Amino acid sequence: MTRITRFVGGLALAAVLAAPLAGTATAQTPDSDAQIMQGLSQATMFDPALTAQVLRQMAQDAVTQNLPLTLDKSEIAKRLDKLAQITVQIQFALGSDIIRPESYRTLGSIADAMHHPILANYKFIVVGNTDTTGTRAFNLKLSQERANAIVQALVVVFGVSPDRLEAVGLGQEALQVPSKPQDPVNRRVQIFTIGTVGPMGAPVPTSAP
Amino acid sequence: MKRFLVGLAALLLAGMAGSASAQTMSYAEAGALIAKSCGPSIERFCAKDNLGTGAVRNCLMAHQDQVPQQCFDDYAAARASIAKRIAAQGDAWNVCNANIRQACAGVQPGDANILTCLQSASKVIRPACKDILVDAGWWQ
């Protein structure tokens, strides 16, 4: 279905996933700009049933019923894992959806990747995650607001089409490191490449004789 | 007449040099520039305002006497560069249409196939096409 696998590098995804552990957004280098592009263009498959709506509902149900949602071990997580994705650290003001200036560059890097012809016909889900500090309900709401703020900045400041972006907050329901639920490493933003905006278009016509 | 032509050539050269140096910054560089020049003022005066709402800009203006002029200069430069790059990215395929038809017959659009084709045909690409690809950030 997709041919963007040309940018697949065996170690690239591992590098992207390890990047948030290594440092914050202020440590962005041209290398990590390349990693953003590589991560988002790794798609080997799409999962049309895995929509923003489904993810939101799942997290909401778990919080409402106060049931554990071990998303990290679930089938959904396994399906999410297969999508092209990146994990980035965006710095927000404490307990709010205000993006701190130190992360403006990271937002720009994401926009650079999304605007590039490699990704121009793809759409994305922006997922916000918190750690377990605070209540589950508050964290769910906060992470949705933070994901919304990222989408808003990408659209309004950096001109990414709103048709290509959806925001989902998963609160503390999808911890990166379940064994350390309060570790700040769990506070992260994931971006998944979820499909194409439209058909790729017909081949360029061969010129008439 | 000869002098006129030399003068014209010089003007054209200057124009080309101008367009080459007018290439846009990446969105990442634009974001970094705003953060560098305005970040301290935003953290100090606009800690409750988010990017993309217009609120940050309004807040900076409201504290104009305390915000360094460099912030306003760089903010304007970054926004102008972003706008120029967005426009170039939107217009690139139209401006390059003739070259695409000429050099990329049979190429399947998508996944940067057209861009890759144009880059491999760089010797025959028209200056207007190349310039807009530079402004789009797609031509190194």
UniProtKB/TrEMBL annotation, chain A:
Record-annotated OmpA-like domain positions: 79-197
* Record keyword Lipid biosynthesis present: no
Protein name from the UniProt record: Outer membrane protein OmpA-like peptidoglycan-associated protein
Q: Which Gene3D superfamilies does the UniProt record give?
A: OmpA-like domain
* Signal sequence extent: 1-27
Subcellular localization is given as: Cell outer membrane
Species for this entry: Ancylobacter vacuolatus
Query: What UniProt keywords are attached to this protein's entry?
Result: Cell outer membrane, Membrane, Signal
Main location as per UniProt: membrane
TrEMBL record, chain B:
Its keywords, alphabetically, are: Signal
Question: Could you confirm whether the keyword Signal appears in this record?
Answer: yes
Tell me where the signal peptide lies.
1-22
Query: Which InterPro entries does this one have?
Result: GLG1 (IPR039728)
Read off the PANTHER family from this record: GOLGI APPARATUS PROTEIN 1 (PTHR11884:SF1), SELECTIN LIGAND RELATED (PTHR11884)
Record protein name field:
Cysteine rich repeat-containing protein
Species in which this protein is naturally found: Ancylobacter vacuolatus
